[in-house]
Amino acid sequence: MHNVISDVVRYDGVPEYDRCAYLIDLIAEDLDYEETEVFMSRLDILQHGESVAAYFKTVEKRNVAFLLHNVANLQKARAEYDKALKYYNLALKICLKVLGREHPDTAAICNNMALVFYAMGDYDNALKYYGYAMTIREKKLGREHPDTAATYGNMAGLFHAKGDYDKALEYYKRDLAICEKVFGREHPSTATTYNNMAMLLSDLGDYERALEYYERTLRIKESVLGSGHPDVAIVCSNMAGVFSIKGEYDKALEYHRRTLSIRETVLGKEYREHLDTATTYNNMALVFSDLGDYDKALEYYSIALKIVRKKLGSEHPNTAAAYHNMAGIFHDQGDYVKALEYYKHALQIKESVLGNEHLDTASTYHNMAIVFHDQGDDGKSLEFFLKAFKIRFAVLSEEHPDMQDSFNGLVVNYFRLNTGKTESDFEKWFAEQLAMIVKT
Question: Is residue 69 within 8 Å of 112, Cβ to Cβ?
Fold first, then answer.
């Protein structure tokens, strides 16, 4: 047992705070880790830290809040989100009583609680707690403080996930301006913002600029953190995704395997049940699918789905993504019934969690439309192509590839459903649909 921990737990019953205050400080510091560190190095004392925190969780002292907060941070890193929220709430209760609603420590807890809600797919609560953190930090630290920048970046990520790309870009630019001014262009924090900007650019279809930002990010991360750091794995994974979109599959698998290797080294025995592992298996399955190796793709998707359902539950966007992707494989294999079954699983989750106007929901509508088309159900196909088009029209530019795909689907299925109709008939029908979309 850790020496500091044994000094606390040797007392009979609940130890007295005054006798253990300095030990609580030491344990809290022992559990603390910077973003540039590998969190696994702190896991050897996490269980003991949880035990000590449980002894003093009702003691309204700042160092107890710090201990609870640091325990929660490690639980968050391990994707133990329910436990993390429990400890964050305990820490927040003490901070509000001891430090008040406008203290930076209160903002830090709110920010980290928002990160957990975001990871759980609870975007409404995530936005609420990010809002608390942003209000405090802007008022107490100023609009050019690194912590304020971090909150801007987190809010940008949330708007990105919600499909509000304009808002996401606005907040990423705020974040980047502060980071470049305060840290410079070669700092890990600045690199993180470059990475996030690259993700947004990729989703907007600007793949060359996305790779430019990713390469800049990777150079900085490797230089500062080393080639085996988890942050390097994240960048490699993101770059692999862009290479896959561009059809450079060998390059994509190369970067995915590099990602997997880093994560196996970092996570150790937790590797096979960690959400990061699930993400990499899912992404590699996408590549195998594009290469036509459907058996390998299903194998990797199944592993990912098993991990995600266990860690996040059956109503999470990531679970929906796993169902969506497996449906695509069944479609490619010609098993339309199985494909629709899995797409319906995905759609139910997406409509419930993300809503009917999210781009991810549009993606499932679009793919279901293709299955209906291949089954010869032109009416159902046109209905679902139109659902997807309406969402994409409100968010994407006219030149975006997804917009073109949706429009092409409308054209093909309109004429299959309406034999003998002319081009002018379609233009009239399409103008009516646009008018209804704009009106709503």
Answer: yes
SS3 of 7-45: HHHCCCCCCCHHHHHHHHHHHHHHHCCCCCCCHHHHHHH
Per run of 10 residues, the mean pLDDT along the chain (length 440 residues) is 50 54 58 50 57 66 80 81 90 92 94 91 91 96 93 94 91 95 92 94 93 96 92 94 94 95 86 88 92 94 93 90 93 95 96 89 96 95 95 83 90 91 92 85
* Domain locations in the chain as residue ranges: 319-440
What's the pTM? 0.56
- In this structure, the number of other CB atoms found within 10 A of the CB of residue 27 comes to 27
CATH topology of domain 319-440: 1.25.40
CB neighbour class for 166 (10 Å; exposed up to 12, middle 13-18, buried from 19): exposed
Helix 401-417 / helix 378-395 crossing angle, nearest 10 deg:
150
Token pair listed for 271: 């590797």
Question: Which is nearest to 348 in space by CA: 332, 372, 324, 371?
Answer: 324
Which residues 6+ apart lie within 8 Å of 146 measured at CB?
Answer: 178, 179, 182, 183, 189
Given this model, what pLDDT does residue 144 score? 93
Of 136, 133, 138, which is closest to residue 155 (Cα–Cα)? 133
